[in-house]
Amino acid sequence: MEPKRIKKDLTRALRLLNPRDRVMLIGTTDRPQLAEIKGLCRMYERILLVPRPDYASRYVLWKHMIEARGAQVTQSLDISALAKVSDGYTTGHIFQATHSVLNERRLLQLSKRPLVASEFLGHLAKLDPVYREEEESLKEWYFKTPLGKKSLKFMKDQEAEEAKLAKEKKRK
């Protein structure tokens, strides 16, 4: 659906809400650059950038999602390899891969044929990863939003403080 199409309806619906209605509006997109920043900031109080998960997060995600589907993580399943191979994929991609591989039929076969990492690779290959360039352009866009500007200022202040402490440490 086109963002411009729903903009009028969504704005109208938001005007009808009172603060006591306790409604939280959450919007997600993988292409926020296509929207007007001013319009988004008027519509949403906060705009958050959810980065791609790092290796440790992917490791925990794979382990948790596999166990949540009812499968046990055995030595035949190399979660470390899955975490390395899935670099660039989002949490949603990992969720999709685990759900497509661990269907009811496969869960029934686990006692005879344990899970191996290669079973998930075919499903990951069908999905488009988030490339570093794409992530960098998202970060650039995010730092133009009010919350992103505050975050950038905080990071710069923190770096300046660390540099100051390092200089003082060298003097001693």
From TrEMBL:
Top-level taxon in the UniProt lineage: Eukaryota
**Keywords, comma-separated and alphabetical:** ATP-binding, Nucleotide-binding
Task: Please give the Gene3D superfamilies that the UniProt record associates with this protein.
Answer: 1.10.8.60, P-loop containing nucleotide triphosphate hydrolases
MF terms per GO, please? ATP binding
Q: Which SUPFAM superfamilies match?
A: P-loop containing nucleoside triphosphate hydrolases
Name of this chain's protein: ATPase AAA-type core domain-containing protein
